């Protein structure tokens, strides 16, 4: 009787800890595989892009989100690949652009000429 109870407790404990292990192991792998979607996120803060300079794998999409309070834009200045212009981005608005050519892409906010960003596509 006592042995049976002990086995039951052990198996339940083993099951619970086994679940915990399963939960924690896929998380780091999906985090590392998060680049699998190939989306590089850029925010905005204090009328600056965040981060201002970012590495972008060739073929990846950059997603800008206006996380700032004023309106901003994302406008191509120079570099390889397609030209792009987000138009006015109000707070919360998103703009996506795919980059398929390696090189340095400079972009700017039309509203704030001092607000500049760099994408290192490689
Ligand atoms: Cu701006």
Oligomeric status: single chain
CATH class of the domain at 38-121: Mainly Beta
Spatial strand sequence of the major β-sheet: 2-1-4-6
CATH fold-level assignment of the domain at 38-121: Immunoglobulin-like
Q: Could you say what the CATH architecture of the domain at 38-121 is?
A: Sandwich
The percentage helix is 10-25%
Strand content: 25-35%
From N to C, what is the helix and strand string? Answer: HHEEEEEEEE
Main sheet: strands, sense, barrel = 4 strands, mixed
Task: Tally the helices.
Answer: 2
pLDDT < 50 runs, ≥5 residues? 5-35
Integer-rounded radius of gyration: 23 Å
Q: What coarse outline follows from CA principal-axis ratios? A: globular
Small-molecule components bound: copper (II) ion
Structural class: alpha/beta
- In total, the number of strands is 8
Cα distance spanning the termini? 66 Å
What is the arithmetic mean of pLDDT? 82
Q: What is the fourth-level CATH superfamily of the domain at 38-121?
A: Cupredoxins -  blue copper proteins
Task: Describe the structure using short key phrases.
122 residues, 33% strand
Explain what the structure shows:
The protein is an alpha/beta fold and 122 residues long. It has a domain at 38-121: Immunoglobulin-like (Sandwich), CATH 2.60.40.420. The chain contains two helices and eight strands. It has a four-stranded mixed β-sheet with strand order 2-1-4-6, with no helix packed on it. It is globular. Mean pLDDT is 82; it is low at 5-35. Copper (II) ion is lined by residues 47, 72, 109, 111-112, 115.
